[in-house]
């Protein structure tokens, strides 16, 4: 087994010594307060061994990474029927695109675009009596950490400025693929994106996707083996929007990014790895996060390919 700690330390040091590029996500005002030079890494193996470097205990905003968890909640209840409401094709468009929605009659190409995740939130409002609590319970259970919380200031900040998502939700509703009140759907979506997390918690949270859908300690089965395979496939093909192909090419792992600067990825059967650095490239993905993961899978030769 590779010496993960020294490899992580080496890459972390090397990247810190280089110039950092990109901008913090300013379109959610509350996120622009963060120190742009923060940089944390965690890796946890399916044997439960944890490796860390840098700011791995600092909290940041989960943002789009939550879309994987929202999808899991809907998919476990509806199975394949969910795909009548949202597709599983890479979009090739930015995360907040109105793109092909009119042509596709309001069925978003995949559940990780904003439009797709907003439709999933609409589905969750019908499936769960209290979807916010159900999500938080699931997150805490998977991460084995009861301290994880929503950040109401981040949610309010996005709600105040979230014109694009308001447009997306209304457009999809006009095409018949949102059934609940648009404000209620968006409020749920903004709340879910606001979860505060650190890279260690994020790694624990995503270990199920590396471990056949099951948690390590409790052997709680979130998804069956086949569902886990499919979730990982969607992460690989759609997890990085119009940079998904590049991420597969450079890194070679299923993963998901968020505009809080977090990226989480898994090597099924082996580990989950989370990186956080708030400066984003022009596609909305963490500049240093991508750099770190590319070097990590290149050096260790551990990827799905
Ligand atoms: O809806 C939004 O724009 C944000 N709450 C989430 C977007 C996001 O994280 C895109 N990821 N890279």
From TrEMBL:
Highest taxon of the lineage: Bacteria
What enzyme category does the UniProt record give?
hydrolase
Residues annotated to bind substrate: 64, 114, 158, 165, 189, 241, 259
Indicate whether Acetylation appears among the record's keywords.
yes
Please give the catalytic activity noted in the UniProt record.
L-glutamine + H2O = L-glutamate + NH4(+)
Q: Which InterPro entries match?
A: Beta-lactam/transpept-like, Glutaminase
| A Pfam cross-reference name | Glutaminase
- The UniProt transmembrane annotation reads none
The record's section on SUPFAM superfamilies has: beta-lactamase/transpeptidase-like
Q: What is its EC number?
A: 3.5.1.2
The annotated subunit structure for this chain is: Homotetramer.
Stated family: Belongs to the glutaminase family.
- The protein in question is named Glutaminase
Q: Organism, per UniProt?
A: Marinicella sediminis
Taxonomic lineage: Bacteria, Pseudomonadati, Pseudomonadota, Gammaproteobacteria, Lysobacterales
């Amino acid at each position: 087994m590779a010496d993960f700690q020294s490899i992580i330390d080496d890459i972390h040091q090397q990247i810190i010594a280089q110039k950092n590029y990109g901008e913090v996500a300013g379109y959610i005002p509350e996120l622009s307060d963060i120190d742009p030079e923060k940089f944390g890494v965690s890796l946890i193996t399916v044997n439960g061994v944890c490796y860390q470097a840098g700011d791995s205990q600092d909290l940041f905003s989960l943002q789009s990474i939550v879309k994987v968890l929202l999808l899991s909640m809907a998919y476990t209840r509806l199975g394949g029927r969910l795909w009548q409401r949202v597709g599983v094709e890479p979009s090739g468009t930015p995360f907040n695109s109105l793109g092909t929605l009119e042509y596709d009659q309001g069925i978003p190409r995949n559940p990780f675009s904003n439009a797709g995740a907003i439709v999933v939130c609409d589905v969750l409002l019908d499936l769960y009596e209290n979807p916010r609590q159900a999500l938080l319970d699931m997150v805490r259970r998977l991460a084995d950490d009861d301290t994880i919380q929503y950040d109401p200031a981040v949610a309010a900040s996005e709600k105040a400025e979230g014109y694009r998502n308001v447009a997306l939700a209304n457009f999809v509703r006009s095409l018949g693929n949102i059934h609940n009140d648009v404000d209620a759907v968006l409020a749920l979506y903004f709340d879910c994106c606001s979860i505060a997390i650190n890279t260690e918690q994020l790694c624990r949270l995503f270990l199920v996707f590396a471990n056949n859908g099951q948690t390590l300690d409790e052997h709680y089965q979130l998804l069956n083996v086949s569902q886990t395979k499919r979730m990982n496939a969607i992460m690989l093909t759609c997890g990085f929007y119009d940079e998904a192909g590049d991420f597969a090419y450079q890194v070679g792992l299923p993963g998901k990014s968020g505009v809080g600067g977090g990226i989480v990825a898994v090597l099924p059967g082996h580990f989950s790895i989370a990186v956080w650095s708030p400066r984003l490239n022009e596609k909305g993905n963490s500049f240093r996060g991508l750099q770190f993961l590319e070097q990590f899978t290149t050096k260790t030769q551990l990827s799905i390919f």
